User: Fold this.
Amino acid sequence: MWLFYLCITVSLALQTSGTRYQPNWKSLDARPLPKWYDEAKVGIFVHWGVFSVPGFRSEWFWWDWQGENPPDQDCVDYMDENYPPGFSYPDFAPKFHAQFFDPDYWADIFEASGAKYVVLTSKHHEGFTTWPSSYSWNWNSVDIGPHRDLVGDLGKAIRNRSLHYGLYNSLYEWFNPLYLADKKNNFTTQHFVLKKLLPELTDLVLRYKPELIWSDGDWEAPDSYWNSTEFLAWLYNDSPVKDVVVTNDRWGAGCNCKHGGYYNCEDKYTPGELPKHKWEKCQSVDTQSWGYRRNIRLSELMDLPSIVQDLVKTVSMGGNYLLNVGPTSDGMIPAVFEERLRSLGGWLSVNGEAIYASKPWRVQTEKATVPVWYTSNPTGSSVYAVFLTKPESYTFQLTEPLTMETSTVVTLLGNPNPLRWAPLHPSGLIILLPELPFTPGQAWTLKLDWVL
Assistant:
């Protein structure tokens, strides 16, 4: 049925022109990115699955334990010391209880963080689906473990708060026999793609209507093996989310930073200059892992100033910021992660004007009195200068803005009173700062109206 429907879709795309996208990168890459994504700027990433049960090393635990050659000795020792002989990775699934999972409370945290979209793991490389996939019998969250539809339950709560809902999906599965057979055949066969991946991914879209698909696990095979362009043509032309859905760039070996909707390029990607294409930085509060770790240490976590600094630099460079947390197997977002997210929301409640729907300015950063990062509003009538270090004096100097002496107004976000300033020549201005309020984020924003 998938092949029949796909053929019909491709045929229609080839016979028509204009608004329909053809299954090739030239056509697909020309699709405009839906407006909501660039305006959102801030998202929350959630890595959750069976890997949360061992909670050791990272979400790649199964591979590190039994896929690597030689295996990671720390993972081998962890299993030998804590589990009986013969214990297999699938034996973790019944222990994935999620008994404390409260989707409304999760959604409250995400809303309080200031995020505008949430991306949940629907299937990681282990192949376990967090929804009742009929293509993943007895290896999904309804047949085993939580016995509930995690994707659906969280989606309802997220959308009740008017947040956008996205789903992460791994194309490949480490130990799926169909995938391993295709891999053995140098990807000249597509048993896994046609019998598992595409039917499952299509059903995921039809069932949950995600506004973002965060594809991953593409690097071992070309996009022609994954039938990526055919799937995206259907997604953009005929799916129920065709007008709003956003995709990333992980659709086949060599596609990243080249094809797709927005670019991830690589995990924690940080460009050195303003990219010409819309991009996103994914970053994890836990700097050592995306999934939950039982042995996490405070020193391995990003503190709030680091998160705010990372966010500001990303948005100044035109990117979106997707901040990850890893819940426990019993469905709790660790309190330290919750604290980081709520504190980020506190900073955004004051400074969000410089973040949401902003555009890169003609200059992204300068070494002023202290380092400054710039954004601007969509009309260009206001420029925001975010400084990430508290100045040692009350005078603050910027050299890049060109002032209009009779029109320029300078304010500190969170303080309604205009600040006194004087022009510098040939450009720039010197500003008299008030006593800066304490902020755990250690970042403040100057709003400059009517500067060039």
